[in-house]
Design goal:
Among the domains are: about 100 residues, no CATH class; about 120 residues. It is built from 15 helices and 11 strands. About 45% of the residues lie in helices and about 25% in strands. Strands 1, 2, 3, 4, 5 and 6 form a 6-stranded mixed sheet that branches. Strand 8 and strand 9 form a beta hairpin. It is α/β, with parallel strands linked by helices.
Length: about 400
């Protein structure tokens, strides 16, 4: 078997395409493999189901996967054909996407390296191309997928914010909780950002009117946006955000008590961690401090009770347990706890729906963690569009290996 036959098989070429030349060239002390591809004489090519004769050729070059650790380039005089309406069109070659300077296999390798955790610069260094070129491959794949892969109706959605870079720059992330993927991204964390994220979702065929439940935190901006853009959806405040607000009330009481009683210094961890996660020694310490300092002890008891109420919702949808807790919390007389109770009353419409739908922002929080990992791998993103691109690449649930022809 000669070299031409071997490389023809390696490139999966078939008639009328054929290799016309193989050449090793010296380049900066290394050898590069250059493969020239031609076609059979008097070959005819199909353009949009019409068989056409060759009009002329355009010379093109593509970077291919390395052969035997040698950088490899494909060269071809690509035919242009004259169609029945008299127009001249460039033939689509089988080894590369239209307009790309890389072969299909090379682009697949780029996506593979990025998919498995490499930064754009790292993948570029591995393949001996620039990080900018890596982003070009990712951009083409993601853009085509977003434009051609419609969304199914989004019935269960979540809104969350994520830091995009230092200086209080944020992105709003709209996720499909049911199918576990990002369906929209907006710049900022206000109503306009939610509208921008919603455009991403709707241009792919998923209407806002189909959203039945929207989980979120108690951000005023997101509440306002929900009234504007998701008028038909039930607003569901995330149970973990509710618990976080109660933790803040407990911590405020701890700080007030600590200013008076030095024994409480360095005890923050004890009061904020769930009792089930405390070791025996820490549980005993919490018990002793609770007896000695009843204000922080009562706040801690109420915090643990609220957690039990929220846990109980998964077995009993009735609100009576929460109503009972609210009365007991108010009766404590602790001002930070009473402020928390007032906050619950103001947002009751979204608190009670948690007991009906039992939906949380847990997936959105996992998305947030993954986005932070994406940012960490790249050591930050100066270009916000590249950051959004990578979020869709990793978390958009897109089929990125479909050809973009």
């Amino acid at each position: 078997m000669d070299d031409i036959t071997v490389f023809t098989a390696a490139l999966n070429l078939s008639s009328p395409w054929k290799i016309s030349e193989l050449e090793f060239r010296e380049c900066k002390g290394d050898k590069e493999l250059h493969i020239t591809i031609g076609h059979e004489k008097r070959a005819r090519f199909v353009h949009e189901k019409e068989e056409c004769s060759v009009y002329d050729h355009q010379f093109r070059t593509w970077r291919h996967l390395d052969f035997f650790e040698h950088v490899c380039f494909l060269h071809a005089k690509v035919p242009r054909v004259k169609t029945g309406d008299g127009s001249v069109r460039l033939v689509q070659v089988p080894w590369a996407e239209r307009g790309s300077s890389f072969t299909l296999l090379f682009e697949g390798k780029v996506r593979e390296l990025v998919r498995f955790g490499m930064s754009a610069s790292g993948a570029g260094a591995s393949l001996r191309i620039s990080g900018k070129q890596v982003f070009g491959v990712i951009r083409r794949s993601v853009s085509h997928a977003l434009a051609t892969q419609p969304l199914e109706d989004v019935e269960e959605a979540s809104l969350d914010e994520v830091s995009s870079r230092k200086g209080h720059k944020y992105l709003t992330i709209l996720t499909d909780r049911k199918r576990k993927k990002v369906v929209g991204i907006g710049e900022g964390r206000d109503a306009a950002a939610v509208g921008e994220a919603l455009i991403d979702m709707e241009v792919r065929g998923a209407g806002r009117e189909k959203v039945k439940g929207l989980t979120m935190d108690m951000s005023r901006a997101y509440i306002s946006a929900a009234d504007i853009y998701f008028a038909l959806a039930a607003i569901i405040f995330d149970r973990f955000h509710i618990a976080k607000k109660m933790n803040e009330a407990v911590d405020q009481i701890r700080r007030e008590e600590q200013a008076r009683f030095k024994e409480l210094k360095n005890s923050r961890y004890l009061w904020l961690k769930n009792s089930g996660r405390l070791g025996k020694r820490d549980r005993e310490k919490v018990g002793r401090l609770s007896e000695t300092y009843p204000n922080i002890g009562e706040a801690y008891r109420l915090k643990e009770m609220l957690k039990s109420v929220l846990d109980q919702a998964y077995h009993d949808h009735r609100l009576k347990w929460l109503n009972a807790w609210v009365k007991e919390a108010w009766a404590s007389g602790l001002e930070p706890v009473r402020k928390f109770v007032n906050m619950l009353h103001r947002h009751w419409y979204g608190v009670k729906t948690f007991f009906k739908y039992l939906a949380t922002n847990a997936y959105a929080e996992r998305v947030n963690l993954k986005i932070q990992e994406i940012k960490r791998i790249a050591k930050g993103y100066r270009n916000i569009n590249n950051f959004k691109l990578m979020i869709y690449f990793h978390l958009g649930g897109l089929d990125l290996d479909k050809p973009t022809k």
